From TrEMBL:
Domain RRM positions: 380-456
Organism: Plakobranchus ocellatus
Entry GO MF terms: mRNA binding
Identification of the protein by name: Tudor domain-containing protein 5
PANTHER family with a match to the protein in the record: OS02G0815200 PROTEIN, RRM DOMAIN-CONTAINING PROTEIN
Length: 495
């Protein structure tokens, strides 16, 4: 019997065949003996091997499919590219974990990702960085350039899959549709919808809304509630624009004037001192086309020394109506009791705090912007409040000049002109202590100043508290000090 063998000449093999038993033994020098069957397997295979005949290895089909995908050049990246869809404005989005981001500066990131093509938008959250391109070819090029370095991948919307594997059908690989069970399935749809977006409308209310929708919201539709038609006007998002980074209101009004907006509203920014002197803008356009044109023309446009950001306005979540009554005609007691409890907790927490008026002050910028040692200025910060709105920076410098001022920063009010809050960065801790002791309650232009250490600076507040306690003890000790006993002979001997 002739058996063809393809033996490598470089390796040392010893071949021994036994035609009677129908098997061939192939032995490689320095290795184990392997048996290759010829003819009937029952004549040479052991019992365990005979039982294994006809069974495929574990994950055989899965590994085979993966091998085919690797050979054909298909990958998970291509699958995700197939599911990539543009948003309503026509932009394609890529995302990467925030840990992989090379920089947190938006301008630097834009200059980096613009190498794949333009235009490009950068959006950063607590966990993800989103890079948006206008063309699909640009997205593929960006994946090719930055995909491996920053773990960049297409951002896809979450989908609610209605199929699952269960029971014995899991082993066979057959998909079984989930059975909806009335209220349970509606609750599941509602939870999934709310987890996708906090502003999304749940499935039950979606099925009851009629009329034209814009960005998933009803413009001027009728909502059926308990069988009664109720007219509800919702803000048309396609015409409402949000503008960030306005440093000059007059320049912005001149810039937006050619587009003929219906109305424009400005809101001052004061919570972040690094953005001092800026305003938010809310613009309502006449048509959808005008709104799109404004976004295309003015987004990332330089206005003064800042770049403005123009995008669609997103509505805030509507608060529940406390005056709404249930079917029995009585106010929901659970909601009312919860509101009372929250109000009581808020009052009790305010009583426990020494100076609650200082809690709502705007946060400081990072200390590294002023000095290499962040703790230096962090421990030497003084908050000043309740001074006149027309107070100038030079007036504050003159009033606090003897405390060795390093820097002064004034905060803008939310809805009033002028400034009534300021922060002083002093040279030493003793300057802070003397400043609080001497200037708290000081009268400036008819106003009594409030001078204190920021409440979040627990270290400095502890030092100041100990200092005031020691001073109070010394004053009380001097008042309670006993007088020397009166001597009758002292007066007589005194000339």
């Amino acid at each position: 019997m002739g058996i063809p063998w393809a033996v490598d000449a470089k390796e040392a093999y010893e071949i021994d065949s036994d035609v009677d038993k129908g098997h061939v033994t192939l032995e490689k020098s320095g290795s184990e003996i392997k048996v290759f069957g010829v003819g009937d397997p029952n004549s040479y295979l052991p019992v365990g091997a005979r039982k294994a005949q006809g069974r495929l290895p574990k994950n055989y089909h899965k590994n085979l499919q993966a091998a085919k995908e690797n050979d054909s050049g298909a990958s998970l990246e291509s699958d995700s590219m197939d599911s990539l869809e543009p948003d309503q404005a026509g932009w394609y989005s890529l995302c990467c974990p925030i840990e992989k981001v090379p920089s947190f500066d938006t301008m630097e990131l834009e200059n980096l990702f613009i190498q794949a093509g333009s235009p490009v938008k950068i959006h950063m959250t607590d966990r993800w960085l989103f890079v948006r391109y206008k063309e699909r070819e640009t997205v593929e090029k960006a994946l090719e350039i930055f995909g491996n370095d920053f773990s960049l991948r297409p951002a896809s919307k979450k989908s609610n899959k209605s199929t699952d594997l269960s029971g014995e059908d899991k082993k066979k690989g057959q998909k079984v549709e989930k059975k909806s069970s009335g209220p349970a399935s509606k609750k599941y749809q509602k939870d999934v919808c709310k987890s996708a977006s906090s502003r999304a409308v749940d499935e039950n209310s979606k099925s009851q809304i009629n009329g034209e929708k814009v960005n998933g919201y009803e413009s001027n539709g009728v909502i059926q509630e308990n069988g009664i038609g109720k007219h509800q006007k919702v803000k048309d998002l396609s015409k409402s624009l949000f503008v960030n980074g306005i440093c000059d209101k007059a320049l912005f009004l001149k810039l937006i004037e050619p587009y003929k907006p219906l109305h424009t509203k400005f809101v001052a920014v004061s919570k972040d001192r690094s953005r001092f002197g800026l305003w938010y803008g809310f613009v309502e356009m006449q048509t959808v086309e005008e709104a799109k044109k404004v976004i295309t023309d003015l987004n990332r446009k330089q206005l003064g020394d800042k770049y403005i950001i123009v995008d669609y306005d997103t509505p805030k979540e509507s608060k529940p109506d406390k005056s709404k009554k249930d079917s029995k005609g009585s106010v929901n007691e659970k909601t009312e009791n919860q509101a009372k409890q929250n109000k009581a907790n808020e009052k009790s927490s305010q009583k426990a705090l020494p100076n609650p008026e200082f809690l709502d002050m705007p946060p400081l910028v990072h200390e590294s912007a002023y000095v290499q040692n962040p703790d230096y200025y962090k421990d030497c910060t003084v908050f000043i409040g309740n001074f006149p709105a027309n107070t100038t920076l030079f007036a504050l410098q003159d009033a606090f000049s003897k405390y060795h001022i390093k820097d002064i920063i004034i905060a803008v009010n939310n809805f009033s002109e002028g400034c009534t809050k300021a922060f002083l960065y002093l040279s030493s801790i003793m300057d802070v202590i003397h400043c609080v002791e001497e200037m708290n309650g000081f009268t400036l232009q008819g106003y009594h100043l409030k001078v204190d250490v920021p409440y979040k600076n627990e270290k400095m507040r502890h030092v100041l508290k100990k200092r005031l306690q020691l001073k109070t003890q010394e004053e009380s000790a001097s008042l309670n000090k006993p007088k020397p006993p009166y001597s009758a002979g002292f007066k007589g001997t005194h000339l």
